[in-house]
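Hello,

Our lab assistant flagged a job as stuck in the queue for most of the afternoon. It eventually completed. Since we weren't sure the result was trustworthy after the delay, we are filing this so someone can double-check. Below is the sequence as submitted and the structure that was eventually returned. Let us know if re-running is recommended.
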Amino acid sequence: MGLGGYNPRTVNENAFHIERDGCEVTLQIDVPTAAIQKKEEELLVVARAKLKVPGFRSGKAPEHLVLRYYGEDEFAQDLRDDLVREWLSRALDELDLHPVTTPTVETTAFARGDRLAFQAKFAVLPEVTIPDEIAVDVPEPPPAEVTDDEVAGVLAGLRRDAAVLEPKGSPAEEGDVVRLQRADRDWEGEATASRPIGKQLLNAQATQKLTLVDEDGHSEVFSVTGVYRVLLPTEDEAAQHYGHASWEAFESVVRAELARVAEGRRLRMWRLAALDAVSEWVQVEVPSSLVADVVAEEWKEVRLPPDQKPQFEEAVRRRLRREILAQRLAEARDLRPDEDEVKRRVEGQGRDESVVRAALVLEQAADWIIAATRRKE
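-- returned structure --
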């Protein structure tokens, strides 16, 4: 993106020097002396207007006193920072460069009123050529299936959610609900030997202090505020609770919803397989610095052991590769998200519009690939 037509090293009339190693770019900028002097004058005008120098009206103090009150080093730093921001932005615009990582800037030469040279390093997206004919196979996944056990499991959970809780004075037994409190927050769990926390709730009694230990070994002390027996409704009562005339009608609705979810999962897997196959075929390059930046940001949010970081990095790389391919394919084939669909998903999912647009571009690109591969059949 933005580097087409450049040699590995190019110099333009503004003395912007550019070097590229794959997707990694080093941009060297020499700011003209006249621009440095002009910016210095502008900052002095602002400083004179803001600073109160004893014995002089606002804006009338001589330069040496303004700099003394401002601070020579501080003025030089502000001058350099302003020039770097302005000229880096100008260079990126003129060279049509679009960093996908935050540029790291290093000043290589600076003298007030004379010279400023600096370099910025960043990554850009790779150029990707999308052939009209897709020479890869993307087999369609088998039809989605919903088993009777899956339907029964969901129905059992919904029936339990519609249950009535009856307080009991005896210790918690298998299937009972235990209510807890810690730091003015209320919690609820099921006493059951089948789950680590649930097992610790067995035999809990109201008013006692209970220490619970999670799977990572962290422990917290809770107050047991109540133990309740679960009184399940009949099947028809449960169906009516959810607005259905009978258990059979309720079961039909649940089965249809599970089928819809399963079909969505099947389509997602097909789309990801299509993007992965073409990414590998056209050899989409992911900037290593972009992978490093994303991993550094997202690793803080996941709870994974350190030995799983390589697998996490690979998952991030694959995701970014799909996104790069989808963006390039959308540009090449003029694929644009439907605005009504964007609005519907933003309102329905409560997600940021940019996230929704990116997801739709990914879907459209994958669907284009699938359609292209099926045309060969």
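-- support follow-up --
The delay was a queue issue, not a problem with the job. The result is valid. The mean pLDDT is 89. The radius of gyration is 32 Å.
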